[in-house]
Amino acid sequence: MYNLKHTFKQVAKPMIKLAVVAGCFYFIYLKLATNTSVSWNEFSNSLKLIFDKGFLIIIFVFILSAINWLLEILKWKVLVNTQQKLNYKSALKQCLSALTASLITPNRVGDYVAKAIYYPKDKAKKIVGLNAIGQFSQLFITLVFGIMGLIYMYLNFGLNASINLNFIWILVAIILIFSVSKYGRFYINRVKKFYISIPLLSHLKVLGISLLRYVVFSHQFYLLMLIFGLKIVYLPSMMAIFSMYLLASIVPTLAILDWAVKGSVAVFVFGFLHANTFLILEISLLMWALNFAIPALIGSVFVFQYKTSKALAPSL
After folding, report:
1. How confident is the model over 79-94, as pLDDT tens digits?
2. In whole angstroms, what is the distance from residue 107 CA to residue 256 CA?
3. pTM score > 0.85 for this model?
4. Which long-range contacts (CB under 8 A, 24 or more apart) does 198-201 make?
5. pLDDT above 60: residue 39
């Protein structure tokens, strides 16, 4: 019986790894090669346009993507270091393999699970809590800049955000109902206790890193607009980008469909600036490829390397 169980584990683990990686490659291929909004030929022609801009421009675009993910890895390192030391190499493996695993899960739930399995089972809740703090800090920055962008777009272009305001009111109502319930108070108190247990300096560091990430990828979007020849003034463009990221963030979706959501929202928002719809879709797809697809492919290497050993990560 033991041998059968042991054999099953030895076979199942590589198969699970293979399934995750194969799924990653398949969905990325599906998104890049078979989407109906932007054909592969059109997308490849746009890539040629970027290469025509010169080697330094290409390098700079990729550097921004690298900085984006190096900051995310640093944020995870800072969070885990509040419990136990984590080196940058381990943080990199955990973040990128988690990204790969999150590819086909709603709202990147797989990211929480993948990071947790690097740690002992009795510490999983802490890891999920730390990940939630990191995600919330990024959402908070998105919310602050997004509200600023929506106000600007509403005042200058008459952006109708009533649907999203209704969504926010419903969300607030759900939170209030949940808060007054017995279970809600218990859950919130536990979350509050864990949140307070994290040093204030660490919270500030995480917020600062989240802010830097936001500045990097929002300006990367603007840079690609310039490369693609969209002649739009800086301030309205950035306000539209801020609005786009906020509106896209409140739509529940699979990570693999992130491009489609951001692309459709971008078309809607930049329509007020009379930007070329096709180019906005291409930029959204390219942003997805640079900041999600490529890191996910790199993460697939770490998925194969994963071993269920406590030595891979510090005990908390």
Report:
1. 999 988 999 999 999 9
2. 10
3. no
4. 198/79, 198/82, 198/133, 199/82
5. no
Contact 99, 19 (CB under 8 A): no
In Å, how far from its chain's centre is CA 211? 14
**Cα dist. 297→104, 271, 291 in Å?**
14, 33, 11
For residue 153, give both structure tokens: 């777009």
Residue labelled with tokens 């759900």: 174
Three-class HEC string of 221-243: HHHHHHHCCCCCCHHHHHHHHHH
Tell me, what amino acid is at 89? K
In angstroms, rounded to a whole number, what is the distance separating the alpha carbons of residues 285 and 299?
20
CB 201 within 8 A of CB 189: no
**Which pair of structure tokens corresponds to residue 56?**
């330094």
User: What angle, 0 to 180 degrees and rounded to 10, lies between the N-to-C axes of helices 234-249 and 258-270?
Assistant: 140
> How far is Cα 67 from Cα 48, in angstroms, rounded to an integer?
23
For 51, the token pair is: 């290469």
> In the beta sheet, which residues pair with residue 254?
106
- Alpha helices, DSSP H only, in 34-161? 40-52, 55-80, 88-101, 109-116, 124-157
* Cα–Cα distances in angstroms (integers) from residue 90 to residues 87, 98, 214, 291, in the given order: 6, 12, 24, 20
DSSP letter, residue 271: G
Instruction: Please state, in angstroms and rounded to a whole number, the distance separating the CA atoms of residues 177 and 98.
Output: 33
Q: Measuring CA to CA, which residue among 249, 253, 284, 254 is closest to residue 266?
A: 284
pLDDT in tens, 5-36: 444 444 444 555 455 445 545 554 555 455 55
Give SS3 for 208. helix
End-to-end CA distance of the chain: 33
pLDDT at position 309, please?
Answer: 42
